[in-house]
Amino acid sequence: MGQKLVGILLNAAMHRGVPRLKTGQESLELYEEAAAAYGMVPCFLQLSDINLESGYSVAYVKGSQGYQLMAVPTPSVIHNRAIYSQNSTGTDRLLEQGLLVFNTCNRYGKDQIHRLLAQNGALRGFLPDSAAGLSGLKTMMRRYPDLILKPCRGSVGKGVMRLSRRGERRWIWSYLPSGTRRWMHRAVNPEALPRALRARLSAMPYLVQERIPLAELNDRPFDLRVTVQRGWGGDWQITGMFAKLAAPGGFVSNIARGGEAYSSSSVLEQLFGGETAASIRMSVEALSVMIARQLERSLPGLADIGLDIGVTRDGRLYFIECNGRDQRYGFQKAGLGNLWKDSYRKPMGYARFLLDDPSRYIRY
């Protein structure tokens, strides 16, 4: 294979960090290694440096002196790792010019994802009961004794709250104050919810869900992060999974909120035994591919996602949420270095697949 350019689209802040190798959780080294395996050279772009009229872009490309900005022919295939909402038109303009951008949008509302999955009768049994906003909260409080409240547009667990019943007229509101990792717990009257809680629900759209009784290891609830990606050949593949354990005393498993990453095999085997653990893993993989195939029908260019799947004490599976820009570093933190590398190889394999056969790009 002759060497070709593949674009990696970054947000401006991360793009500025490329020459200093300061790109947060994104590994430039693994992009280089993965792209080279498919005969490609990665170039790191930001949207404002792509000139559609000239067909050239200014991008960071690695040379003998490190990463340098240079003018290059705009890559015909681009993996989007920048955060754009569905209202953004930037990547749409690239598509209109014939460029193949995958993971075109990677910010979807949790309520939207829930609605799309609920359209598939085979998936409904894996979805927690859900409602929206303050009115939805009051309805759900009548149905369930334990609720999770999630910002529809939030990420890494930011803004997630919990309401749990402790008596006929007493509930506990649990939330994480901004800038801290220490949970606050406040008793509330269900007939007169605190102004602060009502203000949060009014300030932004919230999804209210029944709290799933997740299995726990050492009194720490956990879920499974499953990386599902298109690779060479274009089909959805399971790259791997790891377990995310909530911080001691917490209920949110996000690593950015104090959660920890562990091998999924190790955690499941400790709780369920080897044979049942293997069966659960196979079921999680099958469910994750089914979810990806359902979502691709409505989300153009979808190719690289991270799914959070909950497992109850009796082994039942639930879909928790979809991450449009999967933070793959959990594999590294779980000691799964090969899977961490694979999470970079798969998208680069898909990029090479599209370079060789652009007609296989799925637009919907």
What descriptors fit this protein?
single chain; 364 residues; alpha+beta; Rossmann fold; D-amino Acid Aminotransferase, Chain A, domain 1; 3 domains; 6-stranded antiparallel beta sheet; 10 helices; 19 strands; 30% helix; globular
Description:
The chain is 30% helix and 30% strand. The mean pLDDT is 92. The strands form 4 sheets. Strands 8-13-9-10-11-12 form a 6-stranded antiparallel beta sheet, sandwiched between helices. Strands 14, 15, 16, 17, 18 and 19 form a 6-stranded antiparallel beta sheet that branches. Strands 2-1-6-7 form a 4-stranded parallel beta sheet, with helices on both faces. The protein contains 10 helices and 19 strands. Helix 2 (28-37) packs across helix 10. The protein has 3 domains: 4-102, Rossmann fold; 110-125 and 214-360, D-amino Acid Aminotransferase, Chain A, domain 1 (2-Layer Sandwich), CATH 3.30.470; 129-210, no CATH class. The protein is of the alpha+beta class. It has helices at 12-16, 28-37, 90-96, 110-118, 133-143, 195-203, 264-272, 274-296, 329-333, 337-356; strands at 4-9, 40-45, 50-51, 56-63, 66-73, 77-80, 100-102, 130-132, 146-151, 161-167, 170-175, 184-188, 206-210, 216-217, 220-230, 236-245, 260-263, 304-311, 317-323.
Measured as a percent range, the helix fraction is 25-40%
For this structure, what is the CATH homologous superfamily of the largest domain?
ATP-grasp fold, B domain
Q: What average pLDDT do the residues reach?
A: 92
Highest CATH level, the class of the largest domain: Alpha Beta
Major β-sheet annotation: 6 strands, antiparallel
End-to-end Cα distance, whole Å, is 29 Å
- By DSSP, the count of extended strands is 19
Please work out how many helical segments DSSP would assign. 10
